[in-house]
Amino acid sequence: MYVSVSRLRVEPDHSAELIDAFRSRAHLVEAFDGVEGIEVWQSSTDPSEVLMVSHWRDRAAFSAYMESREHRLSHDRIDHALAETIVLERLEHLTGYEVVAR
């Protein structure tokens, strides 16, 4: 399994708009080969911090999605004004672990 965590920062008055954008996304990633799930987390102490956590079969599947038409289409749907307020603070990748319980 491969897990990617994108730590996004947005102005606090835009955080609800960002969450709504994730909720109304096209869901193209869910149909992509190798994706095992995607979650969006918001900090309970800092609403301007949002994590996008995606689970993949392996890094190759994640890399293929990042270079795909579906990824471009998903990002093209983001309102331009909102996109300008989003800062990718950090992108983390977890590898070398196996899910042993759910």
Could you characterize what this model shows?
This protein has 102 residues and is an alpha+beta fold. The protein has 4 helices and 4 strands; from the N terminus they run E-H-E-E-H-H-H-E. It has a 4-stranded antiparallel beta sheet with strand order 2-3-1-4. The radius of gyration is 14 Å and the shape is globular. The two termini are 14 Å apart. The mean pLDDT is 88.
Euclidean distance between termini CA atoms: 14 Å
Look at the structure and give the mean pLDDT: 88
SS content category: alpha+beta
How many β-strand runs? 4
Number of helices: 4
User: How many domains comprise the coordinates?
Assistant: 1
Order of helices and strands: EHEEHHHE
What is this entry, summarized?
The protein is an alpha+beta fold and 102 residues long. Helices cover 28% and strands 31% of the residues.
Defining traits:
102 residues, alpha+beta, Alpha-Beta Plaits, four-stranded antiparallel β-sheet, 4 helices, 28% helix
